[in-house]
Amino acid sequence: MRVSAKADYAVRAAAELAAAEEGPVKGERLAEAQDIPLQFLEHILLELKHVGIVRARRGAKGGYWLAKPANEITIADIVRAVEGPIAHVQSDPPEMIEYRGNAEHLKEVWIAVRANLRAVLEHVTLADLVSGEMPAVVEELAASPDAWAPR
Amino acid sequence: MRVSAKADYAVRAAAELAAAEEGPVKGERLAEAQDIPLQFLEHILLELKHVGIVRARRGAKGGYWLAKPANEITIADIVRAVEGPIAHVQSDPPEMIEYRGNAEHLKEVWIAVRANLRAVLEHVTLADLVSGEMPAVVEELAASPDAWAPR
DNA sequence: GACTTTCCTGACCTTTTTGGTCAGGAGCGC
DNA sequence: GCGCTCCTGACCAAAAAGGTCAGGAAAGTC
After folding, report:
1. What is residue A96's DSSP assignment?
2. pLDDT in tens, chain B (151 residues)
3. With the C-alpha atoms ordered B40, B46, B51, B57, is the resulting torsion angle positive or negative?
4. Residue A143 CA to nucleotide D14 C1', Å?
5. What does each C-alpha distance from B151 to A13, B22, B92 come to in angstroms?
6. What is the DSSP letter of B94?
7. Which residues contact B25 (CB under 8 A, 6 or more apart)?
8. Which chain A positions have a beta carbon within 8 Å of B123's beta carbon?
9. Three-state DSSP state, B67
10. What is the DSSP letter of B65?
11. How many CA atoms lie within 13 A of B115 on its CB side?
12. Does A21 touch chain B (CB under 8 A)?
């Protein structure tokens, strides 16, 4: 239940792209802006390109840019691109698992977990992230001091 | 963002313990009931014992039982015991991370993610799990057909 | 057309995690 | 003392995490 460096990097790089008005941004600039190892970042950007989130051009004046408007790309899209499906259990989606005996209702718990993850990840767009104006769900969750407490 | 086999096993074994009225349950019985490799399960139960969720006695008539009433143990307790902290980013808790540039508000997103994970995991107890009567949060989330759809 | 720039790709690498197994020891009950 | 069951550490193989390296291929510039 943790967020990998790769996913974190991917979102941060995408945020930079979302903020860049006009023209392609070099990988190197993204790497510097977010302090990400360049060569690792290039692999990540390639993955984002393969799933159609990002586009790129080589050569001088080349670089990366978003394939779609920033308000049409969610954090979930990016996380799925680099980490695969969200909230799988033992590499299977929760709805596919059959639990036995007294664990029968565990399925619903994992379903709820996934639903609540989606409730955040699928509603925050890159545009939201860059502007800092989060959807209501996030505002409410982040407003509680409890959410900021370690445990 | 996935649930490990270990966490899944741990919760299932704990559910069996919660359901077992009276007396210690042998590891072997738990392993059979939930189809978990016995030796692996023993290691898991040991971890649960170390954090005070489970108690055990050896010898004939020995076995495992819950250290506390089933309605005082949450899924979060168990997941933390075997997987460590929930929703860490790059092995750091979200509130400790400083984001730069256009990713500045990413922190709030991860905080919200964690909060929503907690909203489920910390509110479902073992008693809820075996009885099948989930807290309202889970009922509502699991009620939506959308929550059951892959993506 | 040569040269530079920047992306593209696959191979490789180390460390950690995951998901186990194995062998033996230690305590409990009879 | 004997059998049962937990307890513990060592070990192991495969995968994932987090990168690095080397070279190739397109695009633009002179």
Report:
1. G
2. 999 999 999 999 999 999 998 889 999 999 999 999 999 999 999 999 999 999 999 999 999 999 999 999 999 999 999 999 999 999 999 999 999 999 999 999 999 999 999 999 999 999 999 999 999 999 999 999 999 999 9
3. positive
4. 43
5. 24, 43, 28
6. G
7. B16, B17, B63, B64, B65
8. none
9. coil
10. E
11. 23
12. no
Q: Which tokens in the block code for residue A16?
A: 């930079």
CB atoms < 10 A from the CB of A22, how many? 6
Question: Phi/psi class of residue B29: alpha, beta or left (left: φ > 0; alpha: ψ in -120 to 50)?
Answer: alpha
Amino acid at B2: R
Amino acid (one-letter) located at B21: E
Location of structure tokens 């040991």 = B46
Report phi then psi at A25, rounded to 5.
Answer: -110, 135
Please name the residue that has the structure tokens 């075997």.
Answer: B82
**Domains (range + CATH), chain A:** 5-148 (1.10.10.10)
The answer to whether A15 faces chain B, any CB pair under 8 Å, is yes
Chain-chain contact of B147 with A101 (C-beta, under 8 angstroms): no
Strands (DSSP E) found in A1-151: 54-57, 63-66
Distance between CA atoms of residues A121 and B84, nearest Å: 22
Structure tokens given for B121:
């995991």
For B78, the token pair is 């168990």
Structure tokens at B62: 């020995």
